């Protein structure tokens, strides 16, 4: 093998998809290839094995409401199908945000996605937690307060918010559009937790390694052991991922309004945007903006496959140089949180 190429690609690979998660506004958008000027792409076919999945518990309540009142302390309120809430506060009225650590490469799991704050507290301009339905249009939002949603059946709604501290707001909002229902969309849009990590490397079609582990630390150990054995220039840390089990992603939320959120073991979160590049092929495009895709077409691509009720997300790259072909990929296996 051409060692210079292997070293370059492996260095790039280890800083690639493991920067981590972090799912998009329309059911069909962009071209099928999802070309973003980047060499990342699907390394396995997307789709489904046909296993039927039940609708999440709060599917009928799932919606994103964009607040239209000028001067409102909140810009949007979203209830997800699995019982999560995501609230964006008005940046001018929110405390200072925490700076996100720079990511080395775009990844669907990466904290390069907008990663401003800590869950369940008003630390930045994102609030998130669990909710329960207490009545028709009535919800108890963990750590936040009560929400009552009413509307006439069109896109305009009234949102009455009573904070846990007693302060209340009566706001107006529009319900965000949702994609046409489809099996892939219905399967994807729920809350997931990561149960297995996989990393693989192929050289001219020959598998150099293909490791899986239920933890990031376990996968790190296998990658480091491989590097120690096969790389004569190995030094400690060469093959470590960007995350450890203490800081890495734990859960991922996809919604039909185009939101995707990643929560991390260190209690931080990242909120970004997703859409289908090609729903039939399972090509899922993601941005690092919580509200939109980059107008210059900068976005990432992952491949979604549903197997026995679990979600497998794969992303990677394939390069050929001087007759040598390197393919590297990472797969996250996720189980639904019920």
Automatic annotation (TrEMBL):
What PROSITE patterns does the entry give?
A: PROKAR_LIPOPROTEIN
Its keywords, alphabetically, are: Signal
Signal sequence region? 1-22
Q: Please give the residue ranges the record annotates as the region Disordered.
A: 34-55
Q: What is this protein called?
A: Lipocalin-like domain-containing protein
Task: State the species of origin.
Answer: Marseilla massiliensis
